[in-house]
Write a structure and sequence with these properties.
2 helices, mainly beta, four-stranded antiparallel beta sheet, homodimer, metal ion binding (chains A, B), RmlC_Cupin_sf (chains A, B), Jelly Rolls, 159 residues, five-stranded antiparallel beta sheet, globular
Chain lengths: 159, 159
Amino acid sequence: MPKLDLSQIPFKGGSTYPGKLAQAMARRSSQRLGDAGGLTQYGVNMVRLEPGAASSLRHYHMQQDEFVIVTQGTCTLIDDDGEHTMQPGDCATFPAGDANGHHLVNKSDAPALFLVVGTRTETETGHYSDLDMKVTMDATGFKFTRKDGSPLTAEQIGE
Amino acid sequence: MPKLDLSQIPFKGGSTYPGKLAQAMARRSSQRLGDAGGLTQYGVNMVRLEPGAASSLRHYHMQQDEFVIVTQGTCTLIDDDGEHTMQPGDCATFPAGDANGHHLVNKSDAPALFLVVGTRTETETGHYSDLDMKVTMDATGFKFTRKDGSPLTAEQIGE
């Protein structure tokens, strides 16, 4: 039925980032609400950040609109303009193609949760603001490279 | 900047429903968060229901995924399966083409708020579960008709 049974949707951790970059995603987990409810046109995830955790490496999307609303605790939105404290009910939008890299970090001493919505597209490019890295996505999956398209270095990924 | 200044985004009432059908939308208002933040691929609205208000006439979408999360108060989700109480944090999904008409009603004595996300598409058809009515949308706007495409009757819209 349309109302989701949240108790049946697990919070899962893990990361698609290569090598040691995945370590930045420790203490972050998420519930894939949209998938659980049969949505396909956009993803909707409830993200839980333990103290010290980050939502992602700081990035922006070229093709996908992104929206967040904090639902519990305190998050710090970090973007090109600095740090912005976000409390429950606070919202932020990241239009596709806006080259303002962003992520949310939990700098508090209690868990924080936010809901994030992102369009599903057949292809996508994401740029990482603080690293020489981009990600391209197509039907074959994700591919992380340096910004010029060359492979990530051993120094970057620790392999 | 990405973080929205919610104090600058008005809650607006009103309805696109024709004639007396618009009366069903009294005591409902919404903040157009996605539009305010420059999103175009989906709409994100914070909807406020005063006691007795409804989110919409009970309906379903053929082309647009819909997602809701209650953020304050208590809403009653009414769909083909009956009534489902929704408290803050409760979520529901309505995949495009799922012919389960739904709306949220505030049966409590305090205001309720929910966030709703809906895909933006170039065309759309919506079906109303409790009325002989559908809506079609294209570049020229909305058009409400009977389910067979004929004009709504004077009895239906009170004109």
